[in-house]
Design goal:
Number of helices of chain A: 12
Radius of gyration of chain B: 23 Å
Strand content of chain A: under 5%
Number of helices of chain B: 11
Distance between the termini of chain B: 36 Å
Distance between the termini of chain A: 57 Å
Oligomer: heterodimer
Mean pLDDT of chain B: 87
Chain lengths: 281, 302
């Protein structure tokens, strides 16, 4: 016999709506993703280049002659961030491809949109998930790397000609993380299957990169860089960090424009796909 | 309240200039699939913008103030809905938080509501492993967790076995009567609406066919029989009409609606008196179609 009635209790204490209404969406999605051991493993692996670079900085600061082979300049950070783009793509495939696709499959989209949430809240809440992961492996790691360099060899890092590295890290990481996250989310919204969305995302990145390589190496078309999202991000990094790369020699404004237009396209896809009612005309 | 409400999906007109009001107490939206019931709920939730007309809930416009309206509504959709990978307890708490409850309160209410709907023991199981009946209950729990002023239930007994259906209806009846919550029950099953609701709005082809109290619509309980005669069946039907019976032509014979106090023996007796043979007699139940025809008032002969 129950001690007290387990019946329904009315709830009277209604408080005003929270301003950051999307936060529970981000928090719960991150919690579900980080509960997967395989994903945690991938996240850990994506910090390996960071560890290698820390060792590189340590060696260069302790043995100045090593600086001739491994110089401390923009290339170090440019190369590091370009490497991290690959990990961003992997994290987005395994972490973000199911974010909207699963909601469409399980009907959870109705649970979200029948609450006091706007379409914008939903998209922001979901977008923050890959964005947080991508920023952790790019911006977070690169800034810690920079801080490590500052701590180990302030005299080498506090030179006037290296003062732009920190802003370049911030700009490149933000641009790359935002574009990759938006694309992952947009692709996720186009399917009800996380696997199909993941494959679509892989195809978009690596397929277009293959096309670029064929056009560039086979036909010598430099503008083919603009076709590949990965190459666009690398070209932006090349411009920001002052790295010389003959494959990616193109005016930086063009890849920036491509990335901007692609982001707008992703937002348009999200706006049309994130709906409680699917209208087929 | 909705007035001259017209809603369309692209070129398809789902609601064409319907008007009505939800009275206090549980209200049923009755109609066949595609009649416009769910469209009305979705417009009430602000998912669809009307082509014309007005709609208001709690004195608020769902299109202009969707957040305020949705905050006071609880919605149980017709199709499955759960967040992949979540347990029922986490899912319902999450739903509460999305509705504006503080996290601690949402967790506490999640457990209470899951006990209330009968999922107390299974609340730490992943919702994806639930049976259809359990999924229906968890859908009800997520709609209730924030204690809405108005509960919208879209086909809550879909896919349930008779016992599960009975339990779900008992639960909804309890919410409506003992917990004092207003609710709108959307169904194509007359018995579900009859069991739970006091008022009903009947939809047919995007229009309100009839609105009023359930007992007005269903009238006194009638016995229904599908009958086939051999011989002059019209003579039997004329005699039955004198007793207050109604009928309509069916695909295979006649569907007879006998008033209270009469049964198959009346049919056999009158058939014998008229020298007509009863070749087929099968007891039936009043269908939604019968109620519609009665609501529209002119199809049934008698």
């Amino acid at each position: 016999m129950p001690i007290y009635d387990q019946g329904y209790r009315r709830y009277e204490a209604r408080s005003p709506l929270h301003r950051v209404r999307f936060w529970p969406i981000t928090r719960e999605a991150l919690r579900l993703i980080l509960a997967k051991r395989a994903f945690l493993g991938l996240l850990a692996v994506s910090f390996l280049p960071f560890v290698v670079r820390v060792i590189q900085i340590y060696i260069v600061t302790r043995f100045p002659e090593a600086g001739r082979v491994l110089p401390i300049d923009g290339r170090l950070f440019g190369d590091f961030l370009n490497q991290q783009v690959g990990f961003m793509i992997l994290l987005s495939i395994f972490g973000a491809s199911g974010l909207i696709a699963n909601d469409l499959r399980t009907g959870a989209i109705l649970v979200y949109l029948s609450r006091p949430l706007t379409q914008r809240d939903y998209i922001a809440g979901k977008l923050l998930v890959p964005l947080a992961l991508n920023l952790a492996v790019t911006l977070g790691a690169a800034l810690v790397l920079y801080a490590t360099g500052l701590a180990l060899a302030p005299e080498q890092y506090l030179r006037w000609e290296l003062v732009w590295i920190a802003p370049a890290i911030v700009i490149h990481s933000l641009a790359a993380s935002l574009v990759v996250s938006l694309l992952a989310l947009a692709v996720s919204s186009l399917s009800k299957s996380a696997r199909v969305a993941g494959l679509g995302f892989v195809g978009l990145f690596f397929g277009l990169e293959m096309v670029r390589l064929v056009l560039q190496n086979g036909f010598g078309r430099k503008e083919a860089v603009l076709l590949s999202l990965q190459a666009d991000l690398q070209a932006l990094g090349v411009a920001l960090f002052g790295v010389v790369d003959r494959q990616l020699e193109i005016f930086w404004g063009w890849p920036l424009l491509v990335l901007f237009v692609m982001s707008l396209g992703c937002l348009a896809i999200l706006r049309s796909r994130v709906r409680a009612v699917e209208i087929v005309t | 309240m909705f007035q001259d409400l017209a809603v369309s999906y692209g070129l398809v007109q789902a609601l064409s200039g319907v008007s009505g009001a939800f009275r206090s107490g549980p209200t049923g939206l009755l109609g066949p699939n595609g009649a416009g019931k769910t469209t009305l709920l979705k417009t009430l939730l602000g998912f669809l913008a009307p082509d014309r007309g007005r709609l208001s809930a709690f004195g608020l416009d769902p299109i202009r103030q969707p957040l305020e309206v949705r905050r006071r509504l609880g919605y149980m959709p017709e199709q499955d809905c759960h967040v992949a990978g979540m347990t029922a307890a986490a899912f319902v708490a999450f739903a509460g938080e999305l509705s504006g409850l503080p996290r601690d309160e949402a967790i506490s209410r999640s457990h209470e509501v899951l006990y209330y709907v009968g999922l107390g023991e299974a609340r730490y199981r992943n919702v994806e492993t639930y049976s259809t009946g359990m999924k229906q209950r968890v859908k009800l729990a997520q709609a209730l967790v924030h204690d809405p002023d108005l509960l919208l239930l879209d086909e809550p007994t879909n896919g349930l076995d008779p016992q599960g259906r009975e339990e779900m209806l008992a639960l909804i009846h309890d919410i409506a009567t003992k917990r004092g919550m207003s609710l709108i029950l959307c169904s194509h099953l007359l018995r579900d609406v009859e069991r739970v609701c006091e008022n009903v709005i009947v939809f047919n082809q995007g229009q309100v066919a009839k609105a009023g109290e359930v007992r007005e619509l269903t009238g006194a309980r009638r016995q229904v029989f599908d009958v086939r005669f051999k011989g002059d069946g019209a003579a039997v039907l004329t005699d039955l009409k004198d007793l207050g019976a109604e009928w309509r032509e069916g695909e295979d014979g006649v569907r007879l609606f006998l008033p209270e106090g009469h049964g198959p023996e009346t049919i056999f007796r009158l058939a014998k008196e008229c020298g007509v043979q009863v070749r087929h007699l099968r007891p039936g139940a009043e269908t939604l179609e019968d109620v519609f025809l009665r609501a529209l008032g002119h199809e049934i002969q008698g």
